[in-house]
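Fold it.
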Amino acid sequence: MKVRIVNRSKHELPRYETQASAGMDLRANLDEPVVLEPLQRVLIPTGLYIEVPVGYEAQVRPRSGLALKNGISVLNSPGTIDADYRGEVRVILVNLSQDIYQINDGDRIAQMVIAAHVQAQLEEVEVLSETTRGAGGFGHTGSH
């Protein structure tokens, strides 16, 4: 699948780092470092503009190493870039640690996954079909 992209950043295009990678790393495109205080959130530009085909979305997700080692995550995870959006890809980062974290130009800050989706046609009804689970919610199926 081809995804059209405009690169106005100072960095190379995102790419899959391994043959079986699902996501491509997104890099911060900054004129100066951004300091992220504990529990602070910030919108980080990437300098990228993409044209996702209809029927697909680009999902912006946290990088596991950044989350584990530094407590930095994508706040609205996964963030969705719709097929009709043409603005800059920007990433909402949050510092969930107790330490100050500095984001520098070129840092890998998130990953982007291209995923298919469908648009559902909602059908309003009075009752839903019965299942064994029923209305059992969070943790209903046990801890194993």
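The two ends are 39 Å apart (CA to CA).
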